[in-house]
Write a structure and sequence with these properties.
single chain; alpha/beta; Metallo-beta-lactamase, Chain A; seven-stranded mixed sheet; 8 helices
Length: 246
């Protein structure tokens, strides 16, 4: 049995495809017969466009998990809900006090009626092989964890809290170090001297492979490759996918 992670929204898109790349993050986790959308990117029309070219209908999605309440992570949610016929479970952190508070005052009754807002105040289990850990840091960031055969796979939006705390919790909770890191790593004004400490921290936690995108920036990813090697840091653009044995 396998699980698949598909990049739906990112700053970059696969070349020679119809996918759109734009600032933001969204990944589709297909596991245990369910589809979980992690974040929704910034612009709903780009999110829906990319899902359409992946032949994923809005009503195919079983739930949405929002990492934290930055626009690049939650901006596409309203359009996704509007495009659905059925209701949608949306998992959010403690900063989301109400629907209008983060989707805007223009949200109508129809959108409200199709959205089931679930507040996360700690670690939760979504299915046999998918959990969510958090909250971490000032932005109360949450991280999905895919339990693969080779070890935990941690998905991220930004690591605003730094990489140490989430990776420490993975080791403590699962008794194994994270096997793979997938998603964004916040590397502001990426330079070798600022990227090296982050890379060293990841190395200290024994992560075997990295699939990096979004806020790592192209320059930051290049600098991470100088630390980990070309074969251990992979791009994760819109349209790219990763499969894991369960």
């Amino acid at each position: 049995m396998k699980a698949k992670i598909i990049c739906v929204y990112d700053n970059g898109a696969k070349v020679n495809t119809s996918f759109i790349g734009a600032h933001g993050l969204s990944m589709l986790i297909d596991v245990d017969g369910q589809k979980t959308l992690f974040d929704t990117g910034m612009r709903g029309r780009y999110l829906l466009h990319n899902l359409s070219f992946m032949k994923v209908k809005p009503d195919d999605i079983d739930r949405v998990v929002i990492s934290h309440n930055h626009r690049s992570n939650v901006g596409g949610l309203k359009s996704l809900i509007e495009a659905r016929d059925g209701t949608l479970d949306v998992y959010v952190n403690g900063y989301f006090e109400g629907i209008k508070g983060f989707l805007g005052r223009s949200v109508g009754q129809e959108v409200e009626s199709k959205m089931n807002l679930i507040h996360m105040d700690g670690d939760i289990s979504l299915s046999d092989h998918l959990d969510v850990i958090g909250p971490f840091g000032d932005v109360q960031e949450f991280f999905p964890i895919l339990r693969s055969r080779n070890g935990p796979v941690i998905l991220s939006s930004c690591y605003h809290c730094g990489v140490d705390a989430p990776l420490d919790v993975v080791k403590e909770r699962y008794g194994r170090q994270a096997y793979s890191m997938v998603g964004g790593v916040h590397l502001p004004k990426a330079k070798q001297k600022t990227v090296d400490p982050v890379s060293e921290a990841i190395s200290a936690h024994g992560v075997s492979e990295l699939h990096i995108n979004h806020c790592a920036t192209p320059k930051g990813i290049v600098y991470m490759r100088t630390h980990f090697g070309l074969n251990n840091v992979h791009d994760l653009f819109v349209g790219d996918s990763i499969s894991y044995d369960l």
